[in-house]
Fold each of these.
Amino acid sequence: MSAFSSLIGSTAADNWPMAQVMAGMSAVPVGHAIDLAFFFPDDGRDRHDALMAETRRHLGGCLTAIEIGLRLALEQTPEIAAALEQWPQPICWPTICGQPTLLGPALLAHMQMRGGLSLMLRQFGRPDGDHGESEAGPLFSADDMSIGDAMAALTLAEGRWLTTGAEDQPMPPDLPAGHFAELLWTATACLAAVAQRSGTVDPDAVLPVFEAAGQVLLARHDEATGPIAAADRLVRSLGERADAPELMGAALAQRRFLLFTALAGRRLRMESVQVADILVMGPVGQVAALCRALGGSDSDYRHLLLALRPVRPSLSDTRIVGEALRYQDLTVEQADAAVSVMRTPVALRAKLDHLRRITG
């Protein structure tokens, strides 16, 4: 039996295009290899899943933007720039598509979360029960200029995520600093490898030049330009008004998902990016715990599940009915306990889960 079939079974093997990543399986966790196989299918078998497409668009767009920045920085070194001119088309995204194990699990998960948020943001202007033009009123009073400016900044930042284009269409890489650094050094390695193979420059002289160019981009990076950060700033500027009980329901009804996650993060004392991650990719039980801890009624939970359908296609009408019945049995005390666990560091929970598995 092959390693391929032993992992997933012969019946499922033809449906899991993992050949491209199996060669590096020993270097990556199995779960990450499965993710890579779905995001980068082999044998030309395209997946028409909207979340996959959005995730690839964010990955390819941010990577291409970083490549453009690196090429501009490298123009200060003419021999390197001349070597790269032999390949005027984008290099980094095709390289990643061919060698997806260059992507780490945390970076891929973050991009999947961004892709999921983009899908939900595309529902903007279609409040609950409305399938035509939005009749929802403004969330905030037009008299408060500072709030209006913060809301406008959030809308503009969201719009940068929603622009359509090919996978290598540049997108502002408004990533958290750690993820930006990983993607930057990945792009730098892709370009440096090409320059070293060009035969026009000394291979040993390439790496310091590319490292210096990368440092320039690192120094310029501002993770506060993205829509998640803009939503956090808006909630901070609201102060105590952010605790108004009707505000979260209004944000969800108007499909302002980033505002909703920022408001939820404030009330639950969690990072909004973690709330977004749970909504997009977390177990449904965690979504239920968040909703109950926020004081959500049975009806609120059903509306939340309906709103999450673009990123959770498994939420059929039948599934939502079943989850709603289970939600009725979830107490506030149970939800608060679950949220307290979610607040602990991810690394701590991962190591503890590992110890539990190996010790039985």
Amino acid sequence: MPQERGATEGGRVAQRRTPFGDRARYWFDSTLTRGASALVGWMALLCLAVVVPASAVLVWTDPDAPASPADRLAKVWQLTGETLRLGGATGPPLRVTMSVLLALVALLYVSTLVGLITTALTDRLTALRRGRSTVLEQGHAVVLGWSEQVFTVVSELVAAGANQPRTAVAVLADRDKTEMEEALSTKVGPVGRTRLICRSGPTTDPSVLTLTSPATAGVVLVLPHDEPDADAEVVKTLLALRAALAGEATRPPVVAAVRDDRYRLAACLAAGPDGVVLESDTVTARLIVQAARRPGLSLVHQELLDFAGDEFYLITEPALAGLPFGDALLSYPTSSVVGIMRGATPLLNPPPQTPIAPGDQLVVISRDDDTARLDDCAESVEKAAMASGPATPTRPERVLLLGWNRRAPLIIDQLRRRARPGSAVDVVADGDAATVRQVSETEAHSGTDLTLTLHHGDVTRPETLRRLDVHSYDSLIVLGQDPAPEQPPDDPDNRTLVTLLLLRQLEEATGRELPLVTELIDDRNRALAPIGPGADVIISGKLIGLLMAQISQNRHLAAVFEELFSADGTGVRLRPAGDYVLPGCETSFATVVAAARQRGECAIGYRSHDEASTSPDYGVRINPPKSERRRWAAGDEVVVVGRD
């Protein structure tokens, strides 16, 4: 068999024939490994290889060049020296050597000076890129921390300041400034006349907090990040903010959020008397339960909380002083009255006979603070179209909870508070020890009216869902797992989307729509969710961000929202339209408001059944004009502020 090239022969290694180009390249690479001196040498040789021949061509083609070869070579040297800034002097060798030496010294000096200047400029630009300069603004909004909520908060602050000549939002987080700017630019979009400023550094360092000039800010918002120690970080940030503002005559109002109610007291103490601290997990759990009992309610909440539509305002109306609250409900043609602010206490949906005191403010939903104009709408009421039957009775409910996370015990607690005897919650989750322990602890506090049962199973597997009679439940709630410490915060959405896809397959196979509510972390995944038109999607971080932005613009609304989203207080509800007006009857919205007043409620809008699957509003209409007329179908719903 022929000997292979490179094999051993008689104890000797056969030599391979290496191409000259490869050997030359290898030798060149080897010289470069010797360091900067080799690199400088190669650069000098390369320059000489180009400049010397070019100088020779210029000299030999010059008609005025010297005749003798020696003089021409001297001219070539002189031209080369001038080109390379090496002096180029001619004459005795000592003169030439000294000329080259002086040129090298000058070159070294200039190069060192340029290097020092370049380094100083680079350091300064790097510091600017990292966001280490102090913000020089007045009345701006300061956002401390980074999470998915930051995009919602910044977007709403930009929208709130759209009609202002000059507004600014400063974001401070322990992230790269360029990365923050790119992320905000991508997810927030155009900011109009609002200046968006990013600063980089830890929010728990008072010296770093001063970069955002909190003493001159109009409001400071503190966001919890996505790590397990988020609440402790919020408290520490609030303490750092208090230290940074020590000695200041005035302090800006503070709006913060914690996930665990155990940290709320500490956060309130650190925020000070002007601070507002929200419990994000508790509020989210309440919204999920409300949406589970009446799908579509999350759309109403989002419409009420964002600055793009109608919002809550506090107005003073001396003309209504002394009149009963029920008269105010039909006194604004383009605004909806929902309560009274008496001092610092909100009275949402008080009894219609409650008198309006001279110092009271009205809580209204309006397009803007100057669109609430007084005008009697009683003549638009058609009593013949009002329904007179009893309200739709409540009954025991069966809820299927797919998945388990830290908000699941809060959700079950909310279900327990209004559960009718015979109600049941079935939980399907992985049977790890932590989940079993948490379910057992929750079951011990679920009461006698609510039965809690744990079923072991993976909600992302088809066989798990097929074993369940999903259509026998009054509502389905899909929860994602809590993200692991090293896991990206939006990873739980991946499992949730798989579960939703399997449920959608069951809907299509049976032709029956499921009463579904799901929680997602990232708002971008809402467009990917394979759900039917009747399903509700709760973007937990977005709703909390909307709530924080609203309170940041009017901190007096914090008490209103606290009452509106409380577990046992007055809240936003969806009721069958047949409880207020006769089905198939065409009448004005003022008639609906009058019918709701008779039931002790404040009607603020409706949801059209025919448009429930049409984006972007999905049939939700908040604060329609009292004179608006429409034909009310049996499947329509009325949005009211009231109690269960």
